[in-house]
Known about the structure:
The complex is a heterotrimer. In chain B, 34% of the residues lie in helices and 25% in strands. Chain B is of the alpha+beta class. In chain C, 28% of the residues lie in helices and 21% in strands. Chain C has 11 helices and 10 strands. Chain C is elongated.
Amino acid sequence: xxxxxxxxxxxxxxxxxxxxxxxxxxSRKLDQFRPLELSFGDEYGVADVKLxxxxxxxxxxxxxxxxxSDRPFDGIFQITSELGPMVAPSFEVxxxxxxxxxxxxxxxxxxxxSGALDTESLCLIAGQKCWSVRVDLHILSADGNLIDSSCLxxxxxxxxxxxxxTSIEGETLTIYTAAEREPVPLSWLHSPFCTTFDFFGExxxxxxxxxxxxxxxxxxxxxxFSLNKHGEICQISKLGGKPxxxxxxxxxxxxxLAKSKEFTDLxxxxxxxxxxxxxxxxxxxxxxxENER
Amino acid sequence: MPLDTSTYSLALLRIDGRRWNDLRRLHAQIHxxxxxxxxxxxEMGHTKVMCVVTGPAEPQAGQKKGTVGSAQATGQKEGASIxxxxxxxxxxxxxxxxxGRNDRRIQEMExxxxxxxxxxxxxxxxxxSTITVSLHVLSQDGSxxxxxxxxxxxxxxxxxxxxxxxxxxxxxxxxxSYAAGDDAADPLLDLNTQEEQELPYLTVGTLGxxxxxxxxxxxxxxxxSRLEGMLVVGVDGCKQVRxxxxxxxxxxxxxxxxxxxxxxxxxxxxxxxx
Amino acid sequence: MANQQTLLSPAELAYLHSSLSxxxxxxxxxxxxxxxxxxxxxTGILPGTNGSARVCLADGTEAIVGVKAEIEKTVxxxxxxxxxxxxxxASGAGGGDAEEDKRGARGEWLEMTVEIPGLRDxxxxxxxxxxxxREALLADGEFxxxxxxxxxxxxxxxxxxxxxxxxxxxxxxxxxxxTHLALLSTxxxxxxxxxxxxxxxxxxxxxxxxxxxxxxxxxGSRPPITLLVVAVGDSIxxxxxxxxxxxxxxxxxxxxxxxxTQKGDxxxxxxxxxELRLVSMRTVDPPSRLTPPGVPSTGNFAASGTFDPxxxxxxxxxxxxxxxxxxxxxxxAPLGGTRFAVLxxxxxxxxxxxxxxxxxxxxxxxxxxx
Lengths: 293, 274, 370
C-alpha cells in the first residue's frame, strides 16, 4: 500500500517553530483563509472551488427513479466522493482511506442529515416516481482543507443546479426539456458551511484555519463546525486528537459562524453574477431573484 | 413529538424520572476476561458494551494492512499503532438491524476512539507494536459513543498501558432545538435513545479532571448559542463519570491486593493514593 | 484457521504428539482424554433479546449469543394465487391438520451470523463456522417447525453469535454451547389469536412459553451441541486445547442432539433415559497441516557443522528420504485423510452412554435458565 510522504524532520521543526511564533509559511495570518475562487460551469450544477492549490469540482445530476419503498414520499439524494490516485498516490480506488470516510461522513451529516435539501419536494408521484439527485464530488488536487472546500463546492453546485420542470396531469407525468420550459432550481432550505480549525502547540492552544497539506500533517488535533448563516450548528466533529480547552471550542464556534456568513455571501454573490451572465432573455431575470436568499 | 417537552417544564422530570443533571446508573467491571490483556464491561443505563484490549503486541502479519474499516494510526512509526474494532451486535437495538463493518457511522466511531487514544496513550514506549481494541455493543440505549469511550478507558487501564489520564465521555442535550432566544430551554445530561431522537445533543469526551475536550461530536441541528450550555453540562458530566470510573478502578485494585495478586511495592502506591 | 498458528517449534510439536499418542495419553494440562475443561455459563443476560447466553471457557475465550425474533409473513414458494386457494381449501376442510401445515416450515426462517473480532464477516472461516452451527440446528427439521405460527405468518429468528475474546483456539465448541444455552432460554410471546388470523400476542412476558419446552412435559428434540474431537495417533481427545489442536492428526466436529421421549409412569425411576442422536459431522482442517516439519539431526548441517559441498547431493537425497519416511521423534505435519476406524471410534466415544456428551449435557442442564 503506497504511503503518503511524511514531512522531513527539519521541515517539521521549522514549520512548527514558525507557527508557535505566529507565522505561517505562506505569510498568512493564523485565522486567514487562502484566496477562495468559486466558479460555475457552462452547465447547471457544476461548481469549481479553488482554495490555494486545493481544487474541488462538484457536479450535480438528476434523474427520475422509483423511490425507496420505506419512504415513498421522499426523493433520493446522495453525495458521492472518491479520492483517487489522481490526488495523491496514497489514495487507491475502492479502498477508502480514513480521510475519505471522514469526508463522506461529514458531507452526509452537514448537508444531507441537516435537511439542507428538501427531499420531499423531489417526490413526483408518491411511491412511484421521484427525482434522484446525485452529487459527484471530484477532488482534483489536494493541498489541505479538503473538507471546507468540498462542502462549499457541494452546496454551491446544488444551489446552482436546475432540474427539468415537470407537470402531472392525472396519471401522466411530463418532463419538459430546457427548450420547452425553463428548468427550476431545487427546493433549498438552508446553506450549511464547514469550517475546520486545526490545533497546534503543546496543549493545542494555537488555532489555525485553512491549513495546507504540510500543516495538516503536523497538527495535533482539529475540529470541524458546520453552520448556516442563521447560527444553527448542523454538525460538530472533534474526533479525538489532543484535548483542547472547552473555552477555545466555544471561541471557534463563534469564528465558524462569522466564516459561515462570509461563505454565504460569497456563494450568493457568485450565483448572482452567474445568473446575470446567463441572463439572455427576460425570463432569467425573474429566476435570479430566487437566488437572493 | 412523542417526547412531551411541556411535561418537562412542569415537573422538571424527564421521561425516565431523572432530573436534568442526573446520570443514568453507571455500572462497570474491569478484568472481565482472562484471555485478554485488558477488558472491561460497562453499562450506562441500558447501553451495554464490552471492551477487550490485546497488546501491545507484535503486529500480526498481513492482518491489519488491508483491513478496511479498522482505523490505522498513521504517521507515528515510532510508537505503537492502535487498531480499533467496533462490533455492533444485531440484537443490540430494539429492532434487529444488521450493520456491516463498512458502515460509515461505525467506521467514524472507530476512528474517533483510535485518535482519542493515540493522543492520550504513551505509545512511544512500545515501538513497532500494535494495541488492538475490540469493542462489542450488546445493547444500545443512547450515548453509545460515550459508553464505548468509557469502556475503552477502563480496558486500557486494565491492560496496564501507560496513559496521561482517564478519557471519559458522556452526552449532553438541550430541551429545545430552535428559537435562539428561548431561555426556558434547559440542558440535559446523559440522554437515552428516545431523547436522542427528539432533541439536539452532543457527545463530549474530556481528559481527566480538566476542562480539556478530547472528543466532541454533534450530529443534530442546534443554535450556536446553546453550545456553551450543553458543553458545560457535558464536561461536568464527564467529571462525574471520571469519579465513578476511578472508584471502580480503585476498588478493583484493593480487591487485587486482598487476593494477593499484586506485589507489595505496587501495594504501597495504591494505598498512598487511596 | 490460518490466523491461529501456534508458535511451537517442530521439536515441541513432536514431543506433544508423542506424549498425546501414549495410552493413556498425557495431556499438557493433566486432563484425561475424555475430560472437559471447566466453563462458566449464564443465560438471560440481555433483557432486550428473546434469549441470550454467555459462556466463558477455562482458556479465557468468551462468547455471547443473542436471539431475536420477528414476525414475518409467509410467502408461498409456489406463487401467491395458488397459495390463496390452498389456504381456502384447507380452511374449508375445518382448519386442516396443523402438523401437516407445519411441513411448510423452512430452514431459511433462521438467520445466523457469527462475528469474530479481527476477521471480516465474509471471511471463509467465519462463514464455515456459521454454516456448521446452522446445519446442526436444522438437521432434524424439527427446529423450523417451532417457528411456525399459522399458515400466513411465521417467526423469523435471528441468532447473532459474537466471540468476545480474541480467537485463541478453534471457537466451534464454545459457540455451539453458547448457542445451545441461548436457544434453551429463548421465549416467544404467547399467541392469543387462533387459526389463520393476524397473530396477536400476550403482553405478559412471564406467560411466554419457551421455544424449547422446559422439563416435565418435555418431549422432542433439544438444541444440538457440537463437540470438537481430535485424534492424535491412536488416542482420541475431547475438548482439545490450542496446543493439542496444533498436533492433531485429524479433527472432527460432531454435532449431536438429545431427544426426549414421552415416558410412561414407570419412568419415575432415576434412570435418565437420554437418547442421543448424531446430527451431523464434519471434518475440520487442523492447523497442524500448516506446521513446518522438523529436521533430523543427521540432516542438520548447522548443528553438526560438517557441511561439505561434495556431499551435498547425498545429503539432498537424505533430505528427501526424511520427507518420505517419518522418523521417530522428528515432527512431520500429518498428511492425508482420517482412517475409518478412527472416525468410528470417535463417534462411539461421543455417543457412549454416560460418556462425554452426557457429561456436557448434564453440566449445561445445571445452568440456571432465567
